[in-house]
User: What shape does this take?
Amino acid sequence: MTDHELLDIIHGPPWIADLLALFDFEVARAANGPIEPVTLPGGEPLATIAGDGSGGSFLLVGASAVRSVLYVSSEGEGAWSLRILGTR
Assistant: This one.
């Protein structure tokens, strides 16, 4: 499953977004993006997919079909995930 396919599922029925919000992964906050601009040293493109209640953002990194997820807190700290979305 590609990230695009998984995101289509997440944005499908409202109950999925409601369930994810219980875990502080709120897709409705994606429109706000990070509080401060975020860039990576390699210049990889970033796409906001969700936010959390404290002002943090979840961002997809890169442009391939299967991407890593970067979490950026409202204080500017980051946590990189090698692979959260989809499986291969």
